[in-house]
Design a protein that fits this description.
alpha+beta, transport, five-stranded antiparallel β-sheet, 178 residues, flavoprotein, FMN binding, 2 domains
Length: 178
């Protein structure tokens, strides 16, 4: 360790000033605070860019996440459900042009049927759906690629999740078009 002995401690003050400025620069270069839910699905070495330009009243956060293997658009959206707002995260794989994941972040849907929207078996119905064709909710069985079978007794809740995914897919097409 080196100590600087100068009249009045000038060198030490300069070092403290430089170190302080370096810390401020480092912290400010970290950019926007990334939402906790997004941090859970990205790798540590990814580049994350917030796309504020495409955010709106419903889609309140959008991130473009890239690394050597991944190119994703992650959108956080709030959509009206049967009881209240449903907050969810929609992850679109830009390389495959498809939905990679939907995660329900928060909801107040009914505890009997509506609460099933968080179940993996329901959310898996969205995985792999192409991001170029709007999703439609059906009641019994899916006969076409873009159809999502509703949760029995929670059709409005199911439609809210599909509508949120469709809004994110439309937004993704805008982002992709630029």
């Amino acid at each position: 360790m080196y100590f600087f002995i100068c009249k009045g401690g000038g060198a030490i003050k300069n070092i403290k000033l430089v170190v302080g400025l370096m810390i401020v620069c480092l912290l400010s270069s970290c950019g926007t605070k990334i939402d906790k839910e997004v941090q859970e699905v990205i790798k540590e070495d990814c580049t994350v860019e917030r796309l504020k330009k495409y955010e709106n009243e419903s889609i309140y956060r959008i991130y473009h996440v890239t690394d050597s293997e991944n190119n994703k658009i992650i959108q956080l959206i709030e959509q009206n459900g049967f009881v209240d707002k449903i907050k969810m995260m929609v992850v679109i794989d830009c390389k495959e042009d498809e939905i990679e994941q939907i995660k329900i972040l928060e909801h107040n849907e009914s505890h009997d049927y509506g609460d099933l929207l968080t179940e993996e078996w329901f959310l898996e119905r969205f995985k792999g759906k192409t991001a170029t064709i709007p999703l439609r909710v059906v009641k019994m069985s899916a006969k076409e690629e873009n159809q999502i079978v509703a949760i029995t007794g929670a059709t409005i809740t199911s439609e809210a999740v599909a509508k949120g995914a469709n809004l994110c897919m439309n937004n993704y097409q805008k982002i992709k078009g630029e």
